[in-house]
């Protein structure tokens, strides 16, 4: 859903940063790495200490690197298979850090076995959602679709966690985790069934082996 706004952010809001980094000779891959390290630090340093708002602000500041590096690659004409692989791989690390930080928060200051487990479930299912699509595409099939893409998941948990910390309403974060657990589960099942239909059709169209 939020992918439709990428053009606005990349073309208007973040373009000054894109041009600055290009002038400084910074590579898109370096921006991706620094952004991921910043997201991981924000989540794994501040969330476990109960500093949820600080963690959200740090993560938000670095998460835009995911848009900056892509715009830089296009400006430089350096789009490459490795760049796509690098970006996707580090995305998984960043996402894991965000929900891993929440797991550590609920193991300490959050003091909730239920939401610790739910955060861990969201961490795992978020990775499975991305893996299902990547694996299907490697087999020549399409597994796009579902309730929430990566950007939607990140925005929901960061906004809910940040607002919950500002107004001292932790129920916002709890509700976001339940929503994400459902959305991730639905998306994984949706993609499995979608690939299964395509696989059965492909198998049926192939001549029997002799």
UniProtKB/TrEMBL annotation:
Annotated membrane topology: Multi-pass membrane protein
Cofactors, names only: Mg(2+)
Transmembrane stretches, start-end: 46-68, 114-132, 175-193
GO biological process: phospholipid biosynthetic process
Keyword Iron: no
Entries under Gene3D superfamilies matching the protein: 1.20.120.1760
Catalytic activity: 1,2-di-(9Z-octadecenoyl)-sn-glycero-3-cytidine-5'-diphosphate + 1D-myo-inositol 3-phosphate = 1,2-di-(9Z-octadecenoyl)-sn-glycero-3-phospho-(1D-myo-inositol-3-phosphate) + CMP + H(+); a CDP-1,2-diacyl-sn-glycerol + 1D-myo-inositol 3-phosphate = a 1,2-diacyl-sn-glycero-3-phospho-(1D-myo-inositol-3-phosphate) + CMP + H(+)
MF term (GO), any: phosphotransferase activity, for other substituted phosphate groups
Pathway: Lipid metabolism; Phospholipid metabolism; phosphatidylinositol phosphate biosynthesis
Pfam families from the UniProt entry: CDP-OH_P_transf
Transferase as UniProt keyword: yes
Localization terms from the record: Cell membrane
Keywords: Cell membrane, Magnesium, Membrane, Metal-binding, Transferase, Transmembrane, Transmembrane helix
GO cellular component term, pick one: plasma membrane
Oligomer and partners: Homodimer.
Identification of the protein by name: Phosphatidylinositol phosphate synthase
Organism annotation: freshwater metagenome
Lineage start: unclassified sequences, metagenomes, ecological metagenomes
């Amino acid at each position: 859903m939020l992918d439709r706004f990428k053009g606005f952010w990349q073309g208007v809001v973040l373009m000054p940063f894109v041009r600055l980094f290009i002038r400084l000779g910074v590579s898109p891959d370096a921006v991706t790495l620094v952004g991921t390290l910043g997201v991981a630090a924000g989540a794994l340093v501040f969330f476990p200490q109960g500093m949820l708002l600080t963690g959200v602000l740090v993560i938000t500041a670095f998460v835009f690197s995911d848009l900056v590096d892509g715009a830089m690659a296009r400006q430089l004409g350096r789009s490459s298979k490795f760049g796509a692989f690098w970006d996707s791989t580090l995305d998984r690390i960043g996402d894991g850090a965000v929900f891993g930080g929440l797991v550590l928060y609920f193991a300490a200051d959050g003091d909730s076995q239920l939401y610790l487990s739910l955060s861990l479930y969201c961490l795992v299912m978020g990775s499975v959602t991305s893996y299902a699509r990547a694996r299907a595409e490697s087999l020549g099939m399409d597994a796009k679709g579902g309730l929430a893409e990566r950007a939607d998941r990140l925005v929901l948990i960061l906004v809910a966690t940040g607002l919950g910390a500002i107004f001292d309403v932790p129920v916002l974060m709890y509700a976001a985790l339940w929503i994400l657990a459902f959305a991730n589960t639905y998306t994984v099942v949706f993609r499995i069934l979608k690939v299964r239909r395509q696989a059965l059709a492909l198998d049926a169209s192939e001549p029997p082996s002799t």
